[in-house]
Input
Amino acid sequence: MDLTKYEKIFAQESERYLKELDDLLMRVEKDLLNRSLWSEIHGKVHSIKGMARALSLDKITGLSHSMEDWCKEFQQGTMEATANAVQLLFDGADLLRLLVARKGETDSHENQRWYSSLTSQFEKGPEESANKVQHVDSPHSSTPSPNKKINQVQVQYSLIEELLGLSQEILLSEKALPPLSQEQISSGLKNWIDRYTSLLKGLCFRLAQLRLMSVGDFFELFVKTIRDLAKEHNKEVRFEVIGGEVQADIALLANLREPFIHLFRNSIAHGIEPPDERVRAGKNPEGKIILEARRERDSLIISIGDDGQGIDRPAIIRHLKGKGSMTDEQIARMSQEEFFNTIISPDFSSVSETTDMAGRGIGMSVVAQAIEYLGGSMTIHSEKSRGTEFIIKLPLSLSILYAVTFYVGDYALSIPTSNVESIERRDRISPQERKSLYDLRALLGAHYNGGNGFHILKLRHHTPDSLTSGLHAKNGQICLLVDGITGNRQLMVMPLGELLSKVRIFSGVGIMEDGHISMLLDLENLLEVQTSSGHT
Output
């Protein structure tokens, strides 16, 4: 019997169970006596064991069985779990992942030694070794990194069905050109071409979506890595993601894996203080790393910040005076951006003093080079005892966002939904507010197209006072007068061409699901253009 098919299913299912197992172990690590969680963990390990036994994968079966015995004890309450015991189960999950990838075999002396060391600890049982467990280093753990390559993405079944349906319609349409008389051919052919083109645009839009991955899903790959790095350095760290719904091309995100590992490692090793030190400084013993993603014009902005001790300014000053031969006066004249960007130079990254600094010398030139290779840039902000933030700006060849789509005259326009506070009808606003409206038609040279009434878009927008003072914005709020609202739509946003870039008021070309185009407004440039031209 050919087992290839079943081995493939086993590998796929085990990968899913091990991902869920990692998540459950991270949860139970903070709630050691939670029997419900231990029951779920037991279930995942048992499922892997059952599949491995059916395929006669003895090493996986034996290791899973030993781990399962430990989980039973904690689930039933006959033994109390310890942090050391949870760590050993993490080690076991990592070894299972390797064995699954290698079809149940330890294919090197190092892996066999790792397997023997782990199984011997599990075989002693939790009652004998729960408080004596020693972390067993994986031979692959010197550079923690997300275990999985980005070689697949989750696709909703409904989207696949849509793609298949559209493909079938296109094939049928090719054969469905109706027999037409000479009088009919012009209008009939036009209708057929319009229908065919519409289907092609819809198919193109949906196929493009398959290239995208949400930033939140991408950073799920790092959760366990961050946890492991924190344990390695005896730190307590919480990881938060803001803007995880932003989607970007998977090829771009894949190239960010190693740079972000460097940033996370430096934040944990050099930025965030040990718990007792943080408590003495009046901080929460648990440090925090926050990753925030947003789309800005045709760029993806990702910031990685921590609430640690900040970058060691004296170390930078010593370097600038020594290697750079700069005077105190020259250093004082440097901008904050120039000053902190010193740490990304290869010279700085190689000096011995950086191994002792609280801030990021090691490996930062590698990060900067990787970001530059992708056509991006990185800036650094840091404040003593308050933390450090790395802001990375990357070009977006393709992204998806939700936007409020509307029309002004014959123009279809959009603004990201996150920038819209509310939508009002003009007849429902006060006379004072009517005087404070920004009419886009004046700027676009558009005429009223005869729609039913006007709408007001009240926007959230954070700009310097010098920009908003030229507008009739009340309490910092900007109000746009538009002819009508199409709806909250999902747009595939593509960069502007050279000609449209010169207009300045657009940040991208949005393609709707039906193939129609809506221009995405660049609010900041729009305000600058409006203020300088005097349009109100």
Q: What stands out?
A: The two ends are 77 Å apart (CA to CA). The chain has 23 helices and 16 strands. The chain has a mean pLDDT of 79. Residues 5 and 112 are 27 Å apart (CA to CA).
